[in-house]
Amino acid sequence: MLKSACLILLATVTVAASAAERPNVVLFMADDVSWNDYGCYGNTAARTPNIDALAANGIRFDRAYLTASSCSPSRSSIITGRYPHNNGKAAELHKPISGHLPWFPETLRDAGYYTALSGKHHMKSTTKRPVPFDHVDGGKNKNNSGGHANWVKVTEERPKDKPFFFWFAAYDAHRGWDSDKQWDTDRYGPMHKPQDVIVPPFLSDDAATRDDLASYYNEVTRFDYYIGQVVAELKQQRVLDNTLIFVMADNGRPFPRAKTRLHDSGMKTALVAHWPAGIQHTGPSVSLVSVIDLAPTILKVAGCDVPETMQGVSMQPLFDDSSAGIRQYAFSEHNWHDYEAHGRSVRHGDYMLLKNFRTQLPLQGPADSVRSPSHEKLLALKEAGQLSAAQQDVFLAPRPEVELYNVVADPHQLNNLAGNPAHQKQQSELAAVLEQWMDETGDSVPEKISPDTFHRVTGKPLPKDERDETGAITPGQDRNADQINAAGPR
């Protein structure tokens, strides 16, 4: 009897010790920020000292890609570890994830983690199910509508006897630039100057566009400030070393030829990982990763089983060797976001192949971008017949069915190599891989998908009687893709 009691006591102590050693996890997510708008990724104008410090002492992933450059489909994909069309209706903006699919925070909570979401949520289910977070708040107060007002408080007030997972999601840098009205120089430093911003070649370099970009940079800096505040609190609590921190964004900047695009300006994300106790090899990593790899990674480091529904792979090998390869291909989708669209892309090595299934339509960006000063300046240049080739791409229709880019030699993807005999081998191989992925994961190109709900020139909502949604279905719906767990080529 005494021996049995001792064994039970020993088992209890062992479980308690194991629970205490399990890492905490914090996922910081910006809203609408492109990969190259952080200091650690080479932007000399945007101030991100706290993110830069995490990158300097962790891993800066230089080839990290989203599955969708669209808010809710991207977040839904991250939280389920699945491609957008495999999440059911959630392939499109504002639509719910199929109810039978697990979200990784609920697996963590079942394993004894304290889970909290503070800031932008933007995810929902087709069924009534328990929220997978012990704490949820919108992250706002009267002086801060950026989504990060409560991050430090949540960190301070967490239960101290449990490991924790925090989903800290800002509204920065979503338009309308509320940080300008709420700016605190003592906290954030001086506002960014329009003359200092970096104007990409597909935008107009003029005063209005520079003002627009400066306000956007302010949002990025405010996001960075609150990351620094949380890191300081974790350090004060002496838990920073055993906390795995990820910093990323859900999609590209809300400017023309960025947000919703399959090109790097929309689909590539900054991704920084920091975990002193668990990352053995720090520095930049050129290993290809997809954001669907985050869910299995977090579950693995927490000692949890990864549900069979998850299509990503664990990034853990990269924590020991940042040059280790975990995948050869990264796939992305462009589905409805304010406007009818259907496109797919695959990345491998130095190349990205994009296939457009709605070639008759321009890719001018979402409605909030269309209403922006930056877009208005491009429209003025268009009317004057003064657009450069890079700027013309915002309005191009019909578009090429296939685009192929060397993303190293052509970082803005302005030189389409599709049809070039010198690159036929890469085009053929990537086209075959993309077709295989679509087939194995149950993707489809429905004859009728969700139509435009905003005017393509003004960005204003279309009257309901001008929206014919009869018979429209989401990609993969006709193939029951939400029931398919196959990941396709990896």
TrEMBL record:
Residues 1-19 form the signal peptide. It is an enzyme of class 3 (hydrolase). GO terms for molecular function: arylsulfatase activity; metal ion binding. Its EC number is 3.1.6.1. Residues 131-140, 445-455 have a biased composition (Basic and acidic residues). SUPFAM superfamilies: Alkaline phosphatase-like. InterPro entries: Alkaline_phosphatase_core_sf, Sulfatase, Sulfatase_CS, Sulfatase_N. Coiled coil: none annotated. It comes from the Bacteria. The keyword Calcium applies. The keyword Cell division does not apply. Pfam families: Sulfatase. Residues 125-149, 444-490 are annotated as: Disordered. Residues 23-303 form the Sulfatase N-terminal domain. Keywords: Calcium, Hydrolase, Metal-binding, Signal. PANTHER family: ARYLSULFATASE FAMILY MEMBER (PTHR42693), ENDO-4-O-SULFATASE (PTHR42693:SF53). Belongs to the sulfatase family. This is Arylsulfatase. It comes from Fuerstiella marisgermanici.
